[in-house]
Design goal:
The chain is an alpha+beta fold. It contains nine helices and ten strands. A hairpin with a 4-residue loop joins strand 6 and strand 7. The N terminus is likely disordered.
């Protein structure tokens, strides 16, 4: 089953053997990204059950997965590409963080309290995500101790990554950009300068000057 975002249609197709092989490779990579998200490795049978409950969503650049103010309590996991969390301070948009392959994305306001989302989640280029409904996610958590243990460890890992993010986006603009180059070069390479600038808290023209200086320095 394959959904296209912002489309009312559900498309069914019969893949060729080559397409089926590519899909299997895609799922293998997806599972490995998930396993790498925390120190607890769930059993292969649990992972297969988890993935079997998901549907794939294809996104284009700037497609919005979860709009600001929407009640979307589904759970999403990045399969390919990069997505970002963004919020609006009344004057400008601010990029709070990025989600790379394997990252679980939940809008916690609607997921936990059934309140409208504070963050908007959108694609930074072409991307695919896997979606599981909250109902199915909760059912699996109740049915599988293995899955529940993985979720607990994953939650701890995400809190660790949040603290790491604060250490990465620290210091003056030059230091923040250097840290991003060192820790997340894929973001620099694949995300627009406008978005990167909003993440580290400077304007795009300042980012361009800093990037030029860093590139010259690295040669």
């Amino acid at each position: 089953m394959f959904y296209l975002l912002n489309s009312p249609f559900l498309f069914y197709y019969h893949p060729s053997p080559t397409a089926m092989k590519n899909t299997q490779n895609d799922l293998t990579d997806f599972k490995e990204h998930l396993h790498a998200e925390c120190t607890y490795r769930m059993a292969d049978e649990t992972m297969d059950e988890f993935v079997s409950r998901m549907t794939k969503i294809a996104l284009k650049d700037k497609d919005v997965l979860i709009p600001y103010g929407k009640l979307d309590n589904n759970v999403y996991i990045v399969n390919t590409g990069i997505l970002r969390y963004v919020y609006f301070d009344g004057v400008k948009e601010i990029t709070f963080g990025f989600a790379l392959p394997g990252t679980m994305m939940i809008s916690y306001y609607p997921f936990y309290k059934n309140e409208p989302s504070f963050f908007q989640i959108e694609a930074c280029g072409r991307a695919t995500v896997m979606k599981i409904t909250k109902q199915s996610f909760d059912e699996l958590t109740m049915q599988s101790n293995d899955f529940a243990r993985w979720i607990i460890r994953l939650s701890a890992a995400q809190l660790w990554h949040y603290e790491q993010k604060l250490s990465v986006v620290n210091g003056d603009a030059k230091e923040r950009l250097e840290s991003l180059f060192k820790n997340r070069p894929e973001i620099i390479e694949n995300v627009s300068s406008r978005i990167v600038a909003s993440y580290i808290g400077i304007i795009p023209s300042s980012l361009s000057r800093l990037k030029s200086k860093l590139m010259k320095k690295s040669r």
